[in-house]
Please model this.
Amino acid sequence: MTLRTKLLALTAIAAAAMQTGGEARSAENATGFYLLGSKTAMGGYLPPPGTYLTDINYYYSGEAGGAAAVGIALRQTGALLNIEANVHIDADAYINAPFALWIAPEKVAGGNVGFGVMVPVGRKAVDVGIDTLLQVTLPSGRVLDADRHFDLDDASTKFGDPVLNALIGWHQGNWHWTVGALLNVPIGPWESDSISNLSFNRWALDTTAAITWLDPAKGTEISVAAGFTFNGENPDTDYKTGTEFHVEWALMQHLSKTSSIGIGGYHYQQVTGDSGSGARLGDFEGRVTAIGPVLNHTFTCGKIPISTQLEWMHEFDAENRAEGDSAFLNVTIPLSVAGP
Model:
């Protein structure tokens, strides 16, 4: 493999790794399983056959008011406070997630297939501010007097649900495209009265198609990825999150064989409403849009190319979701790569 091919391969691995799991903001408890911003630069490029390891570092800080805040507070307080109080949420999360991906040497339908697995671990903290308009009696028996301010908080450091990844990719000239699926396996620790869970306690399947156009002579790259997340019902809350749509993109300029810079973004839209007896806020459909800079750089340690990806996204136009900023720092190392 040439150094440039290795650069493209490792950048693509970082994009694939960022796709698998993490902390997003939507649906039940205003939290979704697909990590928005995960398939921006080189999102449609599948690397050559081999085994790759990516260390994903993800940080998010945001806030929510209105229905989104009420939906989050409902889990901890047990009370529907959209009439009796104004609710505000501040949330922070840091997740570290090692991700292993194997690309098979054999081709299927003219493309290469890959399989991956990731188990996230991290800390999530949520602060709930309640300004009561009327006297509120929580299901726990605690009484919140009218015209008072109360603060509730919840924080935990835990493992999340493991996420399985399968994908297939093709190459033709300057065009590269992939189709992939993610499966959230609900076996991570989860508490019904906590709003700081990293796990989801529900099965979820995401399907995403991505395409990248890269002109090696000019160094210009355009990548787009779009997909749907289908959610199972949480058996402990009788809450079924609706189907979620996401589209991500990146415009990048490759400055050299080892570095590229550009901008990326995403848009999220819940296309069907939440349901089940636990969906006390009704459909609770959400949306959000984000944009920010993306930087990729590859360096060598001995003869091993190590790829880094730094990304920052600022969210806006949020509805029924938290709105804030996210940052990614991912490091990818090839454990074995086929080719000369």
User: Anything to note?
Assistant: Residues 3-337 form a domain with the Porin fold (CATH 2.40.160.40). The longest strand covers residues 85-108.
